[in-house]
Design brief:
Layout lengths: L1 H17 L7 H8 L3 H12 L3 H4 L6 H13 L4 H21 L3 H11 L6 H15 L1 E14 L6 E15 L7 E5 L11 H7 L20 E5 L2 E5 L11 E14 L8 E8 L3 E11 L9 E6 L24 E3 L14 H9 L9 E9 L5 E8 L7
């Protein structure tokens, strides 16, 4: 694939130079070759793109290529130069037929090879398709976790989990579909027990922050089981008039180990994707007395069949090729605004009010994943601190 693309790219570059066009400026190329701006923009993108992943999406179709070759001939390119482009293009099409079969399948192959935001195009298409199949979608999902040394036990951590959805929209009646699961792992003992989670929730209705719910937010259905809590979509209006946002907050105080052990060297915070969403906003607020900030990593795992994630049986095959680097945000946590979550600062102030924490002691590390795959689990992991010598 790379050889066929590079041959086509270099032949196009030689043709443009032979016509004395300016390669890097689409407007000059359009004016010199007398072609439309869109075609000129595509050609300049191909010439500038060093890899197939970056350049192939901009290749013009057969009609556009013919217009380009005719324009280059009229601008002074020789027949030999144009024939080299035609030959390279024919070889490229043969490569597509052999390895992909068609351009759409080729794009999927390229999407999986991407060195940047891998699978971005596939995830975007999946979001639209899954929204129609499931019957519900959301503009954004929020997952945020505060981690601080426990106020009661120096060997433990205090944690606050904030979750929510922005602009949930039913595309058809979808009562009972799971929106939000509270699953919080940070130790070799697995998830915190559901009864412990229930006992420590200090907000209305087991963690749902009613004061931030839109008027159109119907009651969500709450389920408890041995794994934790699940909020499901209740009855409501279909379409824009029924769109709503909702937030949750749940503290877990002194539950998780602060220091690494042979059985448990890592900490993990989960965000389970049960609804098609445009953006997953995943924030980690790390207290300055903890050493986790510089080593946070986000991984995304598929969950075959949509079942619960089990960290004990998770396989390499389930690890999706998605790599997102965190952004370190400056300033107090209540200043960590985001355009996809307008009420976020208010939610932070409300959920942390009873903790007694100095919010200035926390640093936010933000992961933003567009179109996270449905039935996947995004996991931020980090090595736990070593226990200090006594």
């Amino acid at each position: 694939m790379s050889e066929a693309y590079q041959r086509l790219r270099s032949s196009l570059t030689a043709m443009v130079l032979a016509a004395r066009g300016k390669v890097t400026f689409p407007q000059d190329l359009a004016r010199h070759l007398k072609i439309n701006k869109n075609l000129a923009w595509r050609v300049s993108k191909i010439i500038e793109a060093p890899t197939p992943e970056a350049g192939i999406p901009h290749l013009p179709g057969a009609g556009g290529l013919k217009l380009l070759l005719d324009a280059a001939r009229n601008a002074g390119s020789s027949d030999d130069v144009i024939e080299r482009v035609e030959s390279a293009h024919a070889a490229f099409l043969e490569m597509v037929q052999t390895h992909a079969g068609d351009q759409e399948t080729l794009q999927l192959l390229l999407d999986g090879r991407s060195d940047g935001d891998a699978l971005a195009a596939s995830r975007r298409m999946a979001f639209r398709g899954n929204s129609g199949i499931v019957g519900v979608q959301a503009r954004a999902k929020l997952t945020a976790s505060f981690l601080a040394p426990s106020a009661e036990d120096p060997d433990k951590l205090d944690s606050l989990l904030i979750g929510g959805f922005v602009d949930v929209c039913r595309l058809r009646p979808a009562e009972g579909w799971p929106l939000f699961r509270i699953r919080h792992y940070l130790g070799h003992d697995g998830p915190a027990a559901a009864q412990q989670l229930d006992a420590q929730v200090m907000y209305d209705r087991f963690g749902q922050l009613d004061e931030f719910d839109d008027e159109s937010c119907s009651d969500l259905l709450l389920e408890r089981d041995e794994h934790g809590l699940t909020y499901r979509l209740g009855p409501g209006r279909v379409g824009k008039t029924g769109t709503f946002s909702t937030y949750f907050g749940s503290p877990l105080l002194g539950v998780f180990d602060r220091y690494a052990s042979p059985e448990d060297p890592m900490g993990e915070i989960y965000s389970i994707v049960e609804v098609p969403v445009e953006t997953l906003l995943f924030d980690m607020f790390i207290h300055r007395d903890l050493g986790y900030g510089s080593s946070l990593e986000l991984s995304v795992f598929e969950r075959p069949g949509g079942g619960l994630d089990d960290h004990l049986v998770r396989t390499k095959r389930q690890h999706l090729p998605i790599s997102i680097q965190p952004e370190r945000l400056r300033g107090s946590p209540e200043r960590c605004i985001s355009p996809v979550c307008p009420r976020y600062p208010e939610v932070i102030r409300r959920t942390t009010a009873a903790t007694g924490w100095d919010l200035g002691a926390f640093t936010c590390y933000r992961f933003v994943l567009t179109y996270p795959p449905l039935h996947s689990t995004a996991i931020v992991s980090f090595p736990l601190d070593e226990r200090p010598e006594t």
